[in-house]
Design goal:
With about 500 residues, the protein is an alpha/beta fold. It has two domains: about 160 residues, Ribosomal Protein S5, domain 2; about 300 residues, P-loop containing nucleotide triphosphate hydrolases (Rossmann fold, 3-Layer(aba) Sandwich). It is about 40% helix and about 15% strand. It contains 22 helices and 18 strands. Strands 13-14-17-11-18 form a five-stranded parallel β-sheet. Strands 1-2-4-3 form a four-stranded mixed β-sheet. A three-stranded parallel β-sheet has the order 5-8-9, with helices on one face. Helix 7 runs parallel beside helix 17. It is elongated and about 85 Å long.
């Protein structure tokens, strides 16, 4: 006789149905787990046997086979412990088989029979709800799973509680959903002294969802500006909140089911590996790019990142998703993030500063900035210089305008975009639709063509100027893109011209 219990295997943020089948045979001895289990799943045998022993149960001496079907799907993680234990209890007659037929289970077992927290409770609950099943999960995962809808949820702390529940000795109630944190963001843009051009660029980036690069000497406030971008962005919409929470659930980052409407902000160190940035590892976990989905990914000291890591971000910047390839499977995670980067103009950090010359000469800046590939730079809509802050700037009183005031203008511009673009920001708009909604006036087109020839803009760079101009028009409440919008959009890409000026100056020195 075969008993079964439903559980899930994770494919990115999606949960796939897995049937845990248990059969106690008449010959042989021992417990075997089959169906492409990884090391953690194979070790479930010892954890389940130890948990049964602590409860006074003995696993059958006869040959017991646990099959995880479909057998061609790789099974990873310790969350298979609980469904294996429940299916085995039903096979041994400890639980009625019909008691677990309407439930899906996830959870890791400790040796004393307690059930510990596992990642992925929210996707598992969504899958169970879609199948018309309830979910049995660890107590710490209960508030997280409750966000999936009105499905039945049991969140026991140990195996004894769930045994008593199904035997009618203890009634377990459905756990409440976790806390929904408001969209209040602590860091305020009025804390940044001076840097009016950079603040304007940050507002434009927030309004259109544009990628942004800041180039300036150490201490000029680049990191302060980037850290205040989430406070200018509108709070997550309900569907965006669900998408972000699914990624964070798989990564195990939802503590007690707490969700926040503040957009994610991730700032990995420049020593981050490829797997840490785009996802991977033994279990193909989401990386920093996916954890920043619908939020901000900040890369400080941009040239210090390896070229391989930076170039790996080029695809998600265009498609909004990352595919981690494995020999037996491909895992896809969402990665629709807004990239903000900062860098010094050279390794010394002083190139281009007023009254300060780089001690290594022009070659220092050229070699340092050449670490970033041209295609990667092309994907940065806004490229600005952030000069050093002067003592006079530091002595100024805080600005009267706070992040809340800027965020109101950003929200208005976003509403205009979403209504016109069918729910897309200007940065996400396909090229064929961009040419329709961002068609400039005659004077604006003439200026753009002249600038494209002078600055040697690529086709991607040309269209990114159009995107910026469309956002600037939205901030101004203009229905059409005018010459002044094109002019300001071009000014927001001047860091690239600064690099060209350095190269030109170095070439002139060589000729002399």
């Amino acid at each position: 006789m075969t008993t079964s219990m439903s559980t899930v295997a994770f494919d990115g943020t999606n949960a796939r149905h897995i049937d845990v089948q248990v059969q106690i045979t008449t010959s042989g001895s021992g417990l075997a787990i089959v169906g492409l289990p990884d090391k953690a799943v194979s070790e479930s045998r010892d954890r389940v046997q130890a948990a049964f022993s602590s409860l006074g149960f003995m696993t059958p001496y006869k040959r017991t086979i646990v099959n995880l079907a479909p057998a061609d799907i790789p099974k990873e993680g310790a969350h298979f412990d609980l469904p294996i234990a429940l299916a085995l209890m039903a096979a041994m007659g400890i639980l009625p088989e019909d008691a677990i037929s309407d439930w899906c289970a996830i959870g890791e077992l400790s040796l004393d029979g307690s059930i510990t927290r596992v990642p992925g409770a929210l996707p598992a609950a969504v899958r169970a709800n879609a199948q018309g099943l309830g979910l049995i999960c660890p107590e710490d995962n209960g508030p997280e799973a409750a966000w999936a809808g009105d499905l039945p949820i049991l969140a026991p702390n140990n195996l004894v509680q769930i045994l008593n529940h199904f035997r009618g000795r203890q009634l377990m109630s459905r756990p409440p959903a976790g806390e929904l944190l408001d969209s209040t963001y602590e860091l305020d843009i009025r804390d940044v002294r001076g840097q009016e051009i950079a603040k304007r660029a940050l507002e434009v980036a927030a309004a259109g969802g544009h990628n942004m690069l800041m180039v300036g000497p150490p201490g000029s406030g680049k990191s302060m500006l980037a850290a205040r971008l989430p406070g200018l962005l509108p709070p997550l919409a309900p569907q965006e909140l669900l998408d972000v929470s699914m990624v964070h659930s798989v990564a195990g980052l939802l503590e007690r089911g707490k969700l926040s409407r503040v957009r994610p902000y991730r700032d990995p160190h420049h020593s981050a590996s490829m797997a840490a940035m785009v996802g991977g590892g033994v279990k193909a976990k989401p990386g920093e790019a996916s954890l920043a989905h619908r939020g901000v990914l900040f890369l400080d000291e941009l040239p210090e990142f390896t070229a391989q890591v930076l170039d790996s971000l080029r695809q998600p910047l265009e498609t909004g998703e990352i595919t981690v390839a494995r020999a037996n499977a491909h895992v896809t995670y969402p990665a629709r993030f807004q990239l903000v980067a900062a860098m010094n103009p050279c390794r010394c950090g002083t190139a281009g500063a007023d009254g300060i010359a780089c001690r290594r000469g022009a070659r220092c800046a050229i070699d340092y900035q050449a670490r970033i590939s041209g295609p990667f730079m092309d994907r940065m809509d806004i490229q600005i210089d952030v000069p050093a802050v002067t003592p006079a700037d530091l002595a100024l009183p805080p600005d009267k305008e706070c992040s809340k005031d800027v965020a109101a203008r950003v929200a208005t511009a976003r509403d205009i975009q979403l209504a016109r673009n069918g729910g897309l920001t200007n940065a996400e708009l396909p090229q064929n639709r961009l040419e329709y909604v961002a068609e400039p006036s005659y004077d604006g087109r003439k200026l753009l063509i002249q600038a494209a020839e002078t600055l040697n803009l690529t086709a991607r760079g040309y269209h990114r100027v159009l995107r910026l101009a469309r956002t600037l028009a939205d901030l101004a409440g203009s229905e059409s893109v005018q010459r002044l919008h094109i002019a300001e959009a071009l000014s927001l890409r001047r860091a690239k011209r600064g690099l060209q000026d350095i190269k030109s100056g170095h070439s002139a020195q060589i000729r002399r």
